[in-house]
Amino acid sequence: MAHYGEHTLPDLPYAYDALEPYIDEQTMRLHHDKHHQGYVNGLNKAERDLAEARESGDFSNIRNIQRRLAFHGSGHINHKLFWLNMCSPDDYSDPIGDLATQIEKDFGSLDNLKAQFGAAAKAVEGSGWGSLVWQPEGGYLTTVAYENHQKQFVNGQIPILLLDVWEHAYYLKYQNNRGKYVDNFWNIVNWDNVAGNFDKAKAYEFPVSL
């Protein structure tokens, strides 16, 4: 975990054009280098502002600081997970092992999971995320749609697969056709990564850290 106010942009685990033809290189460069970097910068600024408020004892702006911490912090950690959730279509393989068994148990089939997840992601009003989450209380997988970046930890849910449906994630290639972007996402899901996240979630561990 980074020191307070010293978060950095992680490198992508693949080349900018690795997700072609489903996500184009230009989108990846802008999304990673500009948008994600913006969340990192915003998080660092908010943490420094909080440190200054604590040092001075002046908390008159605490509501704004906390809002920025939540927004930029969630944006940063969501993107860290999102990048790892994807792989080149040449490296794609269906889920196996414990994850595949759990998907079968909770959704009936991988196709049913895709349908439920896709419907949730397509239905996000404005900006947000589609998410496959592990619910520790009850021990099951389910899908959730989040608006903006926050509200990721509702009822202790741990996300193991995220899809960014903010317009900056797809508009250059898909324009207003979010549905096609969501459908094509399944060609580049890194199920090996999701399986590792699933193992961590079952141990009450979040897949990535700030």
From TrEMBL:
Superkingdom, natural source: Bacteria
Residues covered by the Manganese/iron superoxide dismutase C-terminal domain: 96-195
List of residues binding Mn(2+): 31, 79, 164, 168
Keywords, comma-separated and alphabetical: Metal-binding, Oxidoreductase
Domain Manganese/iron superoxide dismutase N-terminal: 6-87
Enzyme class: oxidoreductase
Swiss-Prot/TrEMBL catalytic activity: 2 superoxide + 2 H(+) = H2O2 + O2
EC number: 1.15.1.1
GO MF, one example: superoxide dismutase activity
Protein's job: Destroys radicals which are normally produced within the cells and which are toxic to biological systems.
Family to which this protein belongs: Belongs to the iron/manganese superoxide dismutase family.
Stated name of the protein: Superoxide dismutase
High-level lineage: Bacteria, Deltaproteobacteria, Bradymonadales, Bradymonadaceae, Persicimonas
